[in-house]
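Quick log. Single chain, no ligands specified.
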Amino acid sequence: MKPHDDTRARLLKAAAEVFAEQGFEHATIRQICSRASANVALVNYHFGDKLELYTEVLRYCKKPAEGDAAARPWNSAADPQEALREIIRAMLERAFEGGDQANLRYRLMLHEFVKPTAATKRIVDVVMRPVYDRLRAICAAISGLSPDHETTRLTVHSIMGQVAHYAHSTPILMALWPDMKVTPPQREMVARHIAELTLAYLDRQRVHQTVSR
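-> predicted structure:
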């Protein structure tokens, strides 16, 4: 690795850790550079400013595993029902993935959920919107409604809410349902449940559209 690339990588790693610990608002460039053993001026050189550095950290933390259906562009020629099942399954698996990147991503997002800052829109645009727009396109293809229709958006928010519930409420889930350990087979069961529930609703919307014409 070239010295230029090494410095950038050290800044990125240090920034991810400091932002995850302090949140965007309270983290400082000086703290990040101290942890990276780098000159403060190098942040401007490599990233421009604090917000752009934060954006690069988000991209660094959201790098998907190879073959991750949640990150793969949807082919409109593909079967939308199967695409929906696949993306819901991938969203659940990503929500439960381990490792440093997944942990940092979760902590970064938690800061913004609890106390939104100037960086909230970057979280939405970099981490959430690509999957959100993909889900809208798939749901619209199934129902026959526009991706911008309120029913399409409500459906997508319902999917995302259900995934978030299982991903971030595990202790409560286990208290209410002791057998639910969110094991891989149980995650597959949950993904299938969310998908079939959504498909039944979207199929009803398609029938309603046909009858109304």
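Residues 18 and 31 are 7 Å apart (CA to CA).
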